[in-house]
Specification:
The protein has six helices and twelve strands. It is an alpha+beta fold and about 290 residues long. Strand 11 (about 260-270) and strand 12 form a beta hairpin. It has a single domain (about 5-285), classed as Hotdog Thioesterase (Thiol Ester Dehydrase, Chain A, Roll), CATH 3.10.129.10. It is globular and about 55 Å long. It has helices at about 5-10, 20-30, 40-45, 180-185, 195-200, 210-230, and strands at about 10-20, 75, 80, 85-95, 100-115, 120-130, 135-145, 170-175, 235-240, 250-260, 260-270, 275-285. A ten-stranded antiparallel β-sheet has the order 1-5-6-7-4-9-12-11-10-8. A two-stranded antiparallel sheet has the order 2-3. Pfam families: MaoC_dehydratas (PF01575), MFE-2_hydrat-2_N (PF22622). GO terms for molecular function: (3S)-3-hydroxyacyl-CoA dehydrogenase (NAD+) activity; 17-beta-hydroxysteroid dehydrogenase (NAD+) activity; enoyl-CoA hydratase activity. One of its GO terms (biological process) is fatty acid beta-oxidation.
């Protein structure tokens, strides 16, 4: 049986010790499209080591920067074919502004496994600290495994975040590059779904698609730039569900609604009739 929730839920996935440099941060930002206007001082905060700031979504790639093999969906109680898997949701909560370089320890576990009938959802949590135990960030992610449901697990509750019934306060259009996925995979996600046309077709897509976490980072940057004047230190957390695919070269349209101390966000693809890309997205700010 590919999924055994009794074994999976709560399983300790161990510790990972890792480090990063300013060069890793610069590469990540460039892979999101930073520096498109190299004369903009705000862009240079992402793309030049002088006064470099770290977008909190860097936390999603930092533990895997030195990984050069495609990922495997193999955990205690979970064995799933990579071609059946898409990213479902992602949350990053930062406990302080991320340092430009550093060392850290990630401790991960499977928080839950949900049975959606035709699919399974596996939720993973990681707590990341400095070697001395000082907290850096917490991540929570889910993967959606098509065809792996029906194992008798609980379905889980809805956590929809509907935007207000009014016009958005901010709308931003962000073009992606045709080579965006090829750039982004250098940050540690070597899933061939994002580079290999044959693998993509076998997984049910006409062409390789953009990494969901690349879209996640691009939209976080767009909101931070448009609403927070590119001040990444004001971001406390960023969460979103992956509502649809993005093809490299397409344009993302991000809508933002101010809601007290948080920003509610949606993102869609302009070229495909505003097809959803991210939904239920919330950026908490200080």
């Amino acid at each position: 049986m590919p999924i055994d929730p009794d074994v999976a839920i709560g399983a300790d996935l161990g510790e990972t010790t890792f480090s990063w440099t300013a060069g890793d941060v610069l590469l990540y930002h460039l892979a999101l499209g930073a520096g498109a206007d190299p004369l903009d001082p705000r862009e240079l905060r992402y793309a030049y080591e002088r006064d470099l700031r770290v977008l909190p979504t860097f936390a999603t790639v930092a533990p895997h920067l030195r990984v050069f093999e495609p990922p495997a969906v193999s955990f205690p109680g979970v064995e799933v074919d990579l071609a059946k898997v898409v990213h479902g949701s992602q949350t990053v909560t930062v406990h302080r502004p991320l340092p430009v370089e550093g060392k850290a320890v990630a401790r991960s576990r499977i928080a839950d496994v949900l049975d959606k009938g035709k699919a399974a959802v596996v939720i993973q949590e990681s707590e990341v600290t400095e070697p001395d135990g000082s907290p850096l960030w917490t991540t929570r992610s889910s993967i959606f495994a098509r065809g792996e449901g029906g194992f008798g697990g609980r379905r889980g509750s809805s956590d929809r975040v509907a935007p207000p019934d009014r016009a958005p306060d901010v709308v931003v259009d962000t073009p992606t590059l045709p080579q965006q996925a090829l750039l982004y995979r250098l940050c540690g996600d070597r899933n061939p779904l994002h580079a290999d046309p044959e693998f993509a077709r076998a997984a049910g897509f006409d062409v390789p698609i953009l990494h969901g976490l690349c879209t996640y980072g691009i939209v976080a940057k767009a909101v931070t730039d448009a609403v927070l004047d590119a001040d990444v230190t004001r971001v406390r957390s960023w969460s979103a569900k992956f509502a649809g695919i993005v093809l490299p070269g397409e344009t993302l349209r991000t809508r933002v609604w101010r809601d007290g101390g948080r920003l509610l966000v949606t993102a869609s693809v302009v070229e495909r009739g505003e097809a959803p890309a991210l939904s239920d997205a919330v950026l908490d700010v200080s």
